[in-house]
Amino acid sequence: NELRRRLTDSNIEKLEVEKSLSKQISDLRVSKASLENLLGNEMQSERSVIEELRKQLSEKETHIKLVEEQREQIRDTMNDVVRARRNDLSDLQDEVMEYTSKVTAQEREIGALKMKLEEQKLAHDKQFSSFKKKVSENQPSKMKGTEVSKYEQAAEKLRVENESLQEKLREISKENTKLHEKISKIHDENDSFAQTSVLRARNDMLNQEVVNLTDRIRALEKEVIGG
Predict the structure, then answer these.
(1) What is the pTM of this model?
(2) What is the DSSP string of 30-76?
């Protein structure tokens, strides 16, 4: 009986151990499933984060590439602007040199006209003085008709030459006005050109010189007509 009791106790103990082990195994399976589920969720979340990071990285790379392209375009545009500006400056310098040459040529032409006017004035003064001297020394009725005719012819010739000079000065005045407008335009386009201010001053001086010469011609004509 003792042996049977021990065997029975042993079987009972064995069953309890088996039940305990079975419960532990079941609990472990539940824990494993829970851990696997949790791990699966975490891995899915990590994959989502990784995909989002990859997407953001791709967008950043695309944005950087676009910025690089825009920067290249801006650099090319700036280079084009610089080249165009240099070409414009070169053209303006060439234009200033051209107008400088024109103004210089007109200065020489006005100088030549001044000399010619002075020569005509001296010749006129000489003839007029001679004629006055003869008038004062002789009665008008005693003066020879050829002398009067000679003076009238000289006066007429002088008037014709003065008209020619006056027309020439009018043409120069118009040309100087055009040059003045051109130089003013160049000066407005680029105030950094010191040459344009010099040209403007020289052109103003030329315009004043033309006005002075015109006044002298008119005064000379009046003197001839009055004589």
Answers:
(1) 0.40
(2) HHHHHHHHHHHHHHHHHHHHHHHHHHHHHHHHHHHHHHHHHHHHHHH
